[in-house]
Design a protein that fits this description.
The complex is a heterodimer of chains A (226) and B (271).
Chain A lengths: L1 H5 L5 H11 L13 E6 L8 H10 L9 E9 L2 E9 L9 H4 L5 E3 L6 E3 L9 H5 L6 E3 L4 E3 L5 H5 L5 H5 L5 E5 H5 L14 E2 L15 E4 L8
Parallel strand pairs in A: 1-10
Antiparallel strand pairs in A: 1-8, 2-3, 4-5, 6-7, 9-10
Chain B lengths: L1 H16 L3 H8 L4 H4 L3 H5 L14 H8 L1 H4 L32 H6 L2 H6 L4 H4 L28 H8 L4 H4 L5 H4 L8 H4 L14 H10 L1 H7 L49
Helix pairs in contact in B: 14-15
């Protein structure tokens, strides 16, 4: 009884001001201290999908969702035929489109290394992030009615190791590193050959200006964007 | 002679068996899938999932197989116990956001505000090329008909989910920062500037204008309030009365008309 009488009176003006502040707020992207990203060599990838398998295995995914996808691109007319692979999972974008769509705050970007992670236990399965991502990264798990996505095997990163997909790559065409080093070609990795030039976009990939994805490619001559 | 007649007849038979692509799509386009009992892969590669058949597909045709799009509900609580009722994103604090949490398909097609302001149908966004693994041959340089890992070209989403171009508009800052200076009223300027707007077949232009007059949150809802992407959509330049004849730098090379399939006289992207 005494506690009730001592409770401070509600300041409706203050509450209204707080509601107004909260209303119409906007989303400001996290600026990470360092941004990690993937590098994929489109030319030397043989499309074995070992990375996909390792990813599904590590994340215990049922049939359906695939965080990482190896896409086969083939064409030409004999004798000028070509084939190459474009391999993408989450691109851990500088300004991810998935993040602001989430009504529960399940998706977040780590300040430490720019990894975009999801706490799927907070997901209510509205699937907005899946629609908003220009690179098809968030994957819907129909069994649990929630969305899951690649988190660059954040537990492995914390332990000083590389993600499962990178470790499974028998051709060593997939790697991770600080994205600035990937883009300027200075990363010490066998995924980038001595004369290879790293590009940020390849044909048929969504416009990188939408979200600034943290990924680099060694593009095939037929997959280069002029 | 006999041999040449036989060759001619066999050639005729071969030609008859090769009907035109248009006739083919008439034959195989899904109409009553339950009768055809298509298996998963046959259904996936049915011509209705590709151009040109998808351009003419009706919602009924799409929903005959994909009815879960409208039936699916969000979870009542997340696996960790967060109730969907209590979840609210920053953009959902706008006055225009109503009702419980819904899936994005329902928010675009059947929720009250969607029905009031939009006339979207499945093919407004979905333009075919659904099987995600297969890139078209040759690769599509412009990313117009196929985007890796996507069933919808994100540029379509950009029309309503792009950045608010306050610099181009000559405003001192983004709308959420400067709206009080403009009495949170878009029509303060837009009753005379860029008055020719929303004239596309998937929007209900009159209803949007009416709703915008009552509450500028409706305008902001699409123009910055649901900004997923960091760039703005280059809207076509529709002249308005008193508009300067000189094209400013930022508008150079912009089209003067919306893409053909969104024009009002074209019905393909509208209900």
């Amino acid at each position: 009884m005494a506690a009730e009488t001592t409770r401070p009176k509600k300041d409706t003006k203050k509450i209204r001001a707080a509601i107004k502040r909260r209303k119409h707020a906007t989303y400001t992207p996290v600026k990470p201290d360092m941004q990690l990203g993937f590098i994929h060599n489109n030319v030397d990838c043989i499309g074995c999908r070992a990375c996909e398998m390792a990813c599904k295995d590590k994340n215990g995914l049922p049939p359906g969702p695939r965080f990482r996808r190896v896409q086969y691109i083939e064409g030409g007319t004999f004798p000028e035929v070509f084939a190459y692979k474009v391999n993408m999972s989450c691109n851990h974008c500088a300004e991810p489109a998935c993040l602001p769509t989430c009504p529960t705050g399940a998706i977040f970007k780590r300040k430490k290394d720019g990894i975009v992670d999801i706490d799927s236990t907070l997901c209510i399965g509205c699937r907005r992030c899946e629609a908003a991502c220009p690179f098809g990264a968030p994957q819907f798990d129909p069994e649990e009615n929630i969305v899951k996505k690649c988190n660059m095997c954040v537990d492995e990163i914390e332990a000083g190791r590389k993600p499962y997909c990178v470790m499974a790559c028998m051709m060593r065409v997939l790697d991770i590193g600080p994205i600035d080093k990937i883009w300027d070609g200075s990363l010490d990795t066998v995924a980038i050959g001595p004369h290879d030039k790293v590009v940020r976009q390849v044909k048929n990939m969504a416009d990188i200006e939408l979200t600034h994805p943290s990924i680099g490619f060694v593009a095939h001559s037929k997959g280069k964007v002029e | 002679m006999k041999a040449s007649i036989a060759t001619f007849i066999s050639l005729l038979l071969v030609m008859m068996s090769l009907s035109s692509p248009a006739a083919d799509h008439q034959k195989t386009t899904l109409k009553k899938p339950e009768e055809k009992k298509l298996d998963y892969h046959r259904a996936m590669w049915d011509p209705i999932h590709f151009q040109p058949a998808i351009a003419k597909a009706t919602n009924e045709q799409c929903l005959a197989c994909h009815k879960e799009i409208l039936e699916r509900k969000v979870r009542k609580t997340s696996p960790a116990g967060v109730p969907a009722k209590k979840a609210l994103a920053w953009y959902q604090t706008l006055n225009t956001y109503q009702g419980p949490q819904e899936t994005f398909h329902r928010r675009h097609l059947v929720t009250p505000l969607a029905k009031k302001l939009m006339k979207m149908k499945c093919t407004t966004c979905h333009q075919g090329e659904n099987p995600r693994e297969e890139a078209p041959i040759p690769p599509d340089q412009e990313n117009q008909s196929f985007t890796l890992r996507k069933q919808v070209n994100p540029k379509t989403c950009l029309m309503c989910h792009g950045a608010y171009p306050y610099k181009i508009m000559g405003l001192p800052g983004p709308w959420n920062e400067v709206r009080d200076q403009f009495q949170n009223n878009c029509l303060l300027c837009h009753s005379t500037i860029r008055t020719n707007r929303h004239k596309v077949n998937f929007l209900n232009a009159d209803a949007i204008e009416e709703a915008g007059k009552k509450d500028s949150d409706v305008c902001y809802g699409c123009h910055g309030g649901r900004q997923w992407y960091r760039i703005s959509y280059p809207y076509p330049r529709h002249p308005w009365p008193g508009m300067s004849k000189e094209t400013p730098d930022w508008a150079k090379n912009r089209p003067t008309e919306s893409p053909r399939r969104f024009l009002i006289q074209e019905k393909s992207a509208s209900k």
